[in-house]
Design brief:
seven-stranded mixed sheet; about 15% strand; about 400 residues; single chain; globular
Length: about 400
């Protein structure tokens, strides 16, 4: 095994690489020396096999229009079968430059201006932004925090929101960002049955599906055969293999009519072939990335346990919300006695830390902070110690 595929303690200098996370703090209103834990990419070198494929292709001097052959689909479908027990068909696939692009296409394809689209806050904020930017209205079936320290769905409210707002499209985020919930087969069944009953199309964003640390991820479309007819499943190697800048996502739409409508919007947006480097990186990830993935997965799981123990022992009043998936941890500061604005001020100006403030995920996130823990443990230790010393003011 290459050292690159197993050493995640290595701190790689990302400054000076046009890195959104590290190089654009000032432009985004943050102190220049802030330590970032916000945007959801990893501070780990990707698989050496991906690098090898890209180096080899870069030696060819022509970068014209490119497409994929059967080997690309074989790599993608093989990964889905091995890791998620989901058999996909070639006829279902549409490749897009990212999942949020796919969300926008679905909003255009399955709703009309002025329509209401259902989401579940606290939620990754580009969902609502995309809905609003396309002249639709975001309606939330907000998740609630149970006594078990996990988020849950209010199914009575879910159905009521659909009926009262004439919902035609529901955006499911699973594993859920930022709560980390990976919904169970039973939960997905209840969601799907309600949506079937009321003719609601489900876009299921499953981009974090390879980051499940408790149990196994269940693909929405695999729960019931009937759900294939109402869903758009969004996947990508971008989170799993830290290749977000490659801008390639694999969108699966089993229903022919839904696929045709989605493809029409993709065509209208002027998208045809994607970039060759992204296509090759995705194929290489799914063909050769297994050893890197297994090592990374174990390391991130260790980071989760490390953060939980540190918070429990050293950060009184702070609670880590229990979750099953993602490398994003949802920290609850509401019992610290410090209001949300002051927490955020101390986090940025005193601790020189850049996390994601909970309110940007909806008002349901007030008092929370989202922490990206896909980074070398030394970085995590520095972050947590700064929170203790400069946010909670514990010497």
């Amino acid at each position: 095994m290459s050292e690159q595929n197993s050493d995640f303690d290595c701190c790689i200098q990302r400054k000076g690489t046009n890195c959104l996370k590290y190089d654009f703090a000032l432009r985004r209103g943050m102190p220049e020396d802030v330590l970032p834990f916000w945007v959801a990419d990893m501070d780990f070198a990707t698989s050496s096999y991906i690098q090898d494929v890209l180096k080899k292709r870069a030696m060819h001097p022509i970068f014209g229009y490119s497409e994929t052959g059967e080997e690309y689909f074989d790599a993608v479908s093989g990964w889905m079968k091995r890791h998620h027990n989901w058999e996909v068909k070639r006829s279902w696939l549409i490749k897009t430059p990212g999942v949020i692009f796919a969300v926008a296409m679905a909003v255009k394809a399955y709703t009309e201006p002025g329509d209401k689209v259902l989401i579940q806050r606290p939620l990754y904020y580009p969902f609502a932004e995309t809905i609003i930017a396309n002249n639709r209205v975001a309606v939330s079936n907000s998740l609630y925090l149970g006594e078990d320290n996990r988020y849950h769905i209010d199914f009575e409210d879910f159905e009521k929101k659909i009926v009262d707002n004439n919902i035609k499209l529901f955006l499911l985020c699973n594993p859920h960002n930022p709560s980390g919930r990976d919904f169970t087969g039973e939960e997905l069944t209840r969601i799907g049955d309600i949506c079937l009953k009321h003719n609601v199309t489900v876009l299921s964003d499953e981009i974090h599906n390879d980051f499940v640390f408790k149990g196994k991820h269940t693909v929405f479309a695999s729960v019931k055969k009937e759900f294939e007819d109402i869903c758009v499943v969004c996947t990508s190697a971008s989170k799993t293999f830290n290749i977000a800048t490659m801008l390639v996502s694999n969108i699966f739409i089993p229903n022919r009519d839904l696929k045709k409508r989605f493809q029409k919007e993709v065509d209208a947006a002027g998208i045809s072939q994607l970039n060759i480097m992204g296509l090759l990186a995705t194929q290489a990830a799914y063909e050769y990335g297994e050893e890197w993935y297994e090592s990374m997965h174990a390391y991130v799981k260790g980071n989760i346990e490390y953060v939980k123990e540190y918070v429990h022992s050293n950060l009184p009043g702070v609670k880590v919300i229990d979750s099953e998936g993602t490398y994003l941890m949802w920290l609850d500061f509401r019992n610290t006695g410090i209001n949300s604005d002051e927490i955020n001020r101390r986090m940025i100006n005193d601790a020189r830390l850049w996390l994601e403030r909970g309110e940007i995920f909806g008002e349901e996130g007030e008092g929370f902070q989202r922490l990206n823990i896909a980074t070398p443990r030394t970085n995590l230790t520095e972050c947590l110690e700064r929170i203790r010393e400069h946010v909670l003011k514990i010497s």
